[in-house]
Amino acid sequence: MDQKNRPRRLRSNPVLRKMVRETRMDKSSLIYPMFIIEGENIKEEISSMPGQYRYSIDRMGEKLEELSDTGVSSVMFFGIPEHKDEIGSMAYARDGIVQKAFEKAKKEYPDFYLIGDVCMCEYTSHGHCGILCGRDVDNDKTLEYLAKTAVSQVQAGADMVAPSDMMDGRVAAIRKALDQNGFLHTPVMAYSAKFASSFYGPFRDAADSAPAFGDRKTYQMDFHNRREAVKEALLDVGEGADIVMVKPAMAYADLICEIKESVNIPVAAYSVSGEYAMVKAAAQAGWIEEEKILCEMAVSAYRAGADIYITYFAKELAGCMDRGVIG
Ligand code: PBG
Hints:
alpha/beta; 19% strand; binds ligand PBG; 327 residues; two-stranded antiparallel sheet
């Protein structure tokens, strides 16, 4: 048969298949999200996220060592405070849970790159991501609190801050506050296209941060929208974001792709708790092969354009990269 084009030629040999791969990944682009809880000697499994734990500060080193053994050197801390109130005081307290964790991690694990998730929902008694005015979150009032939170995290040792609240103008407010405090070189990774998603369900168990009433639809994005996601990313770039993020990842690859084409800064994708939980549950039931699925999910995010991948599977992925399963 006279066929000039035979795409199968490039698939005929494993060395060649690897040579012509279009997506290449590196462990340095992985970020591991980690839950830190008040108390002592705690390593408790999160029931909706098998294999993920809440660590007290005295035991978080166990996880950091595991990660560094596999070559993962960036972590994002989420704090679970003992005390919650209307204005989320422990989000920006000098002795808040993440502040203490950053302080210790910076001192004892100086090679790690430490990122702070900046939001109020784990710290407010009502579970919303900002300061309430009636039953809605007061945008502009919340900005002051987010800025304070970001500064307190950086003062404690965070190398980067990542606002996840979705208030308008938060990147500018945080940038200004960091600069005023002399942190001109601390980058802001904005959760720019963060959708009101049911994929966060297990996280809210993990961090005890479900809203006490209503939902997050007045601040997180409607998942029917594509152009609005680009608008959010461009606004954040304009406000001084250094990295923009799309979240969740798996069901939002179109937006990773679109935002990658629209901005000229790095794009992160956050594979969230629900993605993790679904893989774990199906694997435990024997319905899918966990490792192959997590690799495919990661590659799809990078293929769509992600430069950075935030995932609870960071350690497993690093292992797969080492073994050449992907990468
Ligand atoms: C805080 C925050 C959430 C996640 C990251 N930061 C929860 C939410 O917005 O309800 C979700 C992460 C995950 O599901 O893994 N606002």
